[in-house]
C-alpha cells in the first residue's frame, strides 16, 4: 500500500467517523467505497463491520437511557435481523463486480430519499411497510454494510428529536451489526 492510498484511507475513515458521530449513520456509506478502492468491494464490506460495531457500541452505551422507543420497533428489528442473515449469505456468494454495483446502488438510493416511499410514520402504509423496511435494510446491511438509505430514511420520516434519532438509529444499527458479525463469522468471511 502506497502513501497516497494510506492517506486516502485515514482521511476517508476520519470523515466517515465524524459523519457517524453527528448523524448515527454515514460510516459505512463513506468508508466502504474508500476501502473498496484499496481492498476490493467484498473485503471492504467485511472489514467495515468491526468499526461499525465499535462505533454503535460507543453511541449506545453513552445514551442507553433514551432507548425506550426501541420497543415500538420490534417488527422492524426482527425483520432486519432476518434480512441481515440473508444479506450475509448473498455476500458469501457474490462476485466483486456485483458488489461494486451494489455499493454504488446504495449510495444512489440514499440520495433518492427513501423516506418518500414509506410516508408519514403513523400512517397505515408506514405501519405495513415497517417490516419490509427492516428486511430490505437488513439485506443491504448483510451484503454491503450500508443500510442507512432505507433504515436512516425511515427514521428521518419519523421526525424524532435529534438525540432520540441518533441513539435509536445507532441501537438498530448495533443490533444489525451484531447479527452481521455472527453471520460473517459463521460463513468464514473474516478469514
Task: Give a structural overview.
There is one protein chain. The chain is mainly alpha-helical. The chain has helices spanning 3-23, 27-39, 41-62, 74-93, 96-112, 115-118, 124-144, 148-157, 162-186. The longest helix has 25 residues, at 162-186. It is globular and about 50 Å long. The relative contact order is 0.17.
SSE order: HHHHHHHHH
Coarse structural class: mainly alpha
Report the mean per-residue pLDDT as an integer.
Answer: 83
**Helix run count:** 9
How large, in whole angstroms, is the Cα Rg? 16 Å
Beta-strand content estimate = under 5%
Shape: globular
Supply database-style keywords.
191 residues; globular; mainly alpha; single chain
Give a short synopsis of this structure.
80% of the residues lie in helices and 0% in strands. It is built from nine helices and no strands.
Secondary structure blueprint with pairings:
Blueprint: H1 3-23, H2 27-39, H3 41-62, H4 74-93, H5 96-112, H6 115-118, H7 124-144, H8 148-157, H9 162-186
Helix pairs in contact: 1-2, 2-3, 2-5, 3-9, 4-7, 4-9, 5-8, 7-8
